[in-house]
Amino acid sequence: MNKMYVGNLPFSVTEDNLKELFQGFGEVTEVNLIIDRESGYSKGFGFVTMADKSSMIEAIKKLDGNDYEGRDLRVNEARPKEDRPSGGGGGGYNKRY
């Protein structure tokens, strides 16, 4: 897997901006910017997948901790999504007569 977590992004960033930033290190195969459902704005993080591991490692070395539009990027190899227990729902409805 050649997927990276990219955090501390400016809220104005787009998927095209991220693709352009990472293409300098090799072929970008996927960009997924996480968007807030309610506001429609970026949550300030996303994921970028590179075609090969060496490109990913180079991008991490060069971009992690560096300034991007006034924010210090956090770039590291993405960890597999952990299984989370299902929420079960919010409390029951207690109807009184």
- Average pLDDT figure: 89
What does the largest sheet look like?
A: 4 strands, antiparallel
CATH topology description: Alpha-Beta Plaits
Secondary-structure-derived class:
alpha+beta
Strand percent estimate:
25-35%
Which architecture does the CATH hierarchy give at level 2? 2-Layer Sandwich
Major β-sheet strand ordering: 2-3-1-6
Explain the layout of strands and helices.
Elements lengths: L2 E5 L7 H9 L4 E8 L6 E9 L2 H11 L3 E2 L2 E2 L1 E4 L20
Antiparallel strand pairs: 1-3, 1-6, 2-3, 4-5
Describe it for me?
- Helix content is 21%, strand content 31%.
- The chain is an alpha+beta fold and 97 residues long.
- It has a single domain, classed as RRM (RNA recognition motif) domain (Alpha-Beta Plaits).
- The strands form 2 sheets. Strands 2-3-1-6 form a 4-stranded antiparallel beta sheet, with helices on one face. Strands 4-5 form a two-stranded antiparallel sheet.
- A hairpin with a 6-residue loop joins strand 2 (28-35) and strand 3.
- The radius of gyration is 18 Å and the shape is globular.
- The model has no long low-confidence stretch (mean pLDDT 89).
Quick rundown:
The protein has two helices and six strands; from the N terminus they run E-H-E-E-H-E-E-E. It is an alpha+beta fold and 97 residues long.
Please name the defining characteristics of this protein:
97 residues; alpha+beta; Alpha-Beta Plaits; four-stranded antiparallel beta sheet; 2 helices
